[in-house]
Amino acid sequence: MLLLNSNNDLDETVCAQNRGSEEASMDTEDVTTGFCWGSIIPVEILHRVFRLLADSEGAVPILCRLSQVCRLWRQVASSRDLWRRVTVSRCCVLPGITDPPRTQKRVMKTIEALIQQRLPQVSDFSLHQWKSFVSLVLQNLSQSCPLLTSLMLSHCSQVTVDDLLSIGRCCPQLQSLNLQNSKVQLNAVYRFLEMYGARLRRLLLSYSVQMNSIMAGIAVC
């Protein structure tokens, strides 16, 4: 997983989480070359094509890869209105092993930059295989993404009461919440349903021995 820390490397960073770092380096070299045939395509056409691709496949990794072609494509791919459906995954880490501090710092800065610079108009966001920094992601989403309508946390850990309440409070259009296979505090789910459950149209949870308490909260809503 390649993690970089600069505005110019933001797309490359996210893209590298979904493909090999070797391929990412090859794409970076393309940006530094001279004339590119892609630069003669009208911006309006590029934007329309990019939107079709992003809507059908999700912004990541397709927009990340397109942004490596040339400066014009990077500029178009950075348009916030294209980043409406986003999935961010992390490489699996063996149990008992954590990222070194330098990598952790880069992860934090990268996800903050991604959300603040690219995702103010995101409506559908998914987070997969994150065992740390989940609170950081959710807090940034709540601060920068008021148009969020669907949130999925798959195989994530450390989801707290404050995280979910912040999302509910700052994302009034949220209608779908998927917490399957994630480690979420029971009280977090109950409190969220108690305060914001009435607006949800779709809630997905994994079965557990505590499901009765959660179902009781749903009944109240």
UniProtKB/TrEMBL annotation:
Listed name of the protein: F-box domain-containing protein
A Pfam cross-reference name: F-box-like
Organism in which the protein naturally occurs: Aquarana catesbeiana (American bullfrog)
GO cellular component terms, semicolon-separated: SCF ubiquitin ligase complex
InterPro entries attached to this UniProt entry: F-box-like_dom_sf, F-box_dom, FBXL6_F-box, LRR_dom_sf
Stored PROSITE patterns: FBOX
Domain F-box: start-end pairs: 41-86
